[in-house]
Specification:
The protein has about 525 residues and is α+β, with helices and mostly antiparallel strands. The strands form 4 sheets. Strands 2, 3, 6, 7, 8, 9, 10, 11, 12 and 13 form a 10-stranded antiparallel beta sheet that branches. Strands 1, 15, 16, 17, 18, 19, 20, 21 and 23 form a 9-stranded antiparallel beta sheet that branches. The protein has a two-stranded antiparallel ribbon with strand order 4-5. A hairpin with a 3-residue loop joins strand 2 and strand 3. The longest helix has 22 residues.
Length: about 525
């Protein structure tokens, strides 16, 4: 018989709905019942618990489709060092053009173009950021390298940058620059200046000057004049002109910058021209009216590939091996795996109706740490079937509240991640196995060997993880155009530093029993025979 979470009889539908609504809103509910109904109604509601075993394991990489670049190094006393760098292409907009050189036609007395000479005044790459993690005053040094190979659409964070640039070729180094996240050389009058919309105008950045001749003119302007077709779209530009940059912090420890954008900016000199005739305007002294303009010609955007690399020390593996608790750690650090006792639930409750299933992960309060830049617990987590992990992120899915769920950390009241009702996950997994078992039994006929089938089910690569879910730090994005009904639009791996130490773990006592399993709480309805 299938375990169900819908009512068996219509006359109790409204009552069950009210009970479930109450359960879903109250994260601290201990038990719910229908004991107020007369015994002659033939139903009763009960709550029971089952043990859930958890373990943590180190993650080599995560899928990271993001337009944010992470760069820097940070050492934590608990987890060791964490280092990150990134590569990015620069986008060339469709139909891109550069201004033409000014020419005057004496016959028509008109002018075309506006550039004063076919040259570049200056060129630079600018790395923009608004936020960071760690010590804002830590002295760091950033390096920029030019890529010599087109980036693959590999979104995993174990990508090796050395496959895409030649670190032994001095020409690949575009620049190096000392910096600190909080630039103390910027006066407050600039840092806190606001526009008419009350928004700050200062955008923290690190500037890398480029040679205006060899890069600005020979690599960009000259190529554009000779082959404008190379600039028709991003794919052609990246293939024919400029494959991108690798951004690395090679000195310092203590700061991770969150890079919003990398711009290639070029400055040109222009004629001021008459709007009607296009003829260059003159000053009172008879000389040309000229002006300079710094323009962003190409930039890293969501339309092009960006690849982040994250490296963790071996301390991550040591922390994941601890058995008296588990961890979640971002980025690309540690997941917690939970094994849900579906077989036990089915055996005990197959004749009953599941109304709600609640599972809670409680983290230890480690707020007394003396480390100034201690990482905080991830704000949001994803609970998902282990076998669906890869496809979930690679195909940009959002949670369906059947086999995937997200919750926000309750860091004020309980220090918990509480999944208040995962009944649909439980019934889906139980019914999946029971359907497979039934089909196998019918196919085997008199040769049916249930013990062998159970062993194969639990060891086969395709089904062995049927009872396992993962707890993963994530970022969630909502469409809030309708504030009364925000819509979840994206769930992505959390790439900012954070961790939580969770109660549970696989440690066993002398009798072989797990010492501190977490509990899954099941509320169900029994119908008297």
């Amino acid at each position: 018989m299938k375990v169900r979470y819908i009512g068996k009889v219509k006359f109790i539908g409204a009552l069950l709905f009210a009970v479930l609504a109450f359960f879903g809103c109250d994260d601290n509910t201990g038990s719910l019942g229908l004991g107020m109904l007369p015994g002659s109604d033939g139903i009763s509601a009960n709550t029971t618990t089952f043990d859930v075993t958890t373990r943590s394991f180190a993650i080599d990489s995560v899928y990271a489709k993001t337009s944010t670049g992470y760069v820097g190094k940070f050492t934590d006393p608990e987890f060791g060092y964490y280092e990150t760098s990134f590569m990015t292409e620069l986008n060339c907009t469709d139909g891109f053009t550069l201004p033409e050189v000014y020419k005057y036609d004496p016959e028509t007395k008109t002018g075309t173009g506006i550039m004063a000479g076919d040259s570049v005044v200056s060129a630079q790459l600018v790395v923009f950021y608004r936020s960071w993690f760690g010590d804002s005053l830590s002295a760091c040094r950033m390096k920029l390298f030019e890529l010599d190979k087109k980036l693959d659409k590999n979104r995993y964070t174990n990508v090796n940058p050395e496959e895409y640039y030649n670190k032994f070729d001095s020409k690949s180094l575009l620049g190096l620059k000392a910096y600190s996240a909080y630039d103390t050389s910027i006066p407050d009058s600039v840092r806190f200046e606001k526009d008419q919309n009350n928004k700050y105008t200062f955008y923290p950045n690190i500037v890398f000057p480029l040679d205006k001749k060899t890069f600005g003119e020979d690599r960009i302007l000259k190529v554009y004049r000779e082959h404008p077709e190379y600039f028709k779209d991003a794919a052609t530009f990246i293939d024919k002109v400029f494959k991108g940059v690798y951004v690395q912090c090679d000195q310092a420890d203590g700061t991770i910058l969150y890079i919003d954008q990398v711009d290639l900016q070029m400055q040109f000199r222009f004629h001021a021209v008459d709007d009607t005739t296009g003829v260059a305007l003159k000053k009172k002294d008879g000389t040309d009216s000229l002006y300079y303009s710094l323009q962003t010609v190409f930039a890293s955007t969501k339309e092009v590939i960006q690849a982040n690399q994250f490296l963790n020390s071996d301390m991550i593996k040591q922390k994941a091996a601890e058995t008296e608790h588990t961890y979640i750690k971002s980025p690309a650090g540690i997941f917690t795996e939970a094994t849900i006792p579906y077989d036990e639930i089915y055996k005990k409750l197959s004749k009953d109706t599941l109304n709600a299933v609640k599972m809670t992960f409680t983290n230890y309060d480690e707020g007394n740490s003396n480390f100034k830049y201690r990482m905080s617990a991830p704000k949001n987590v994803l609970l998902i079937r282990k076998k669906e992990l890869k496809s979930f992120f690679e195909t940009n899915k959002v949670t369906d509240n059947i086999t995937s769920f997200t919750v926000t950390h309750n860091n004020i009241a309980t220090n918990q991640y509480t999944f208040s009702n995962i009944a649909r996950l439980v019934t889906t997994c139980i019914n999946e196995k029971q359907a497979a078992k039934k089909a196998a039994k019918e196919k085997s006929g008199s040769a049916w060997d249930e013990a062998k089938w159970e062993n194969d089910w639990n060891t086969d690569e395709a089904t062995k993880d049927w009872d396992k879910v993962l707890l993963i730090p994530v970022n969630v994005t909502y469409d809030t155009s309708n504030q009364n009904n925000p819509i979840l639009t994206a769930v992505e791996n959390d790439l900012k530093p954070g961790y939580a130490k969770l109660r549970g773990g696989p440690e066993k006592d002398a009798s072989g029993q797990v010492k501190s399993p977490i509990k899954i709480e099941v509320t169900y309805t029994s119908f008297n025979e």
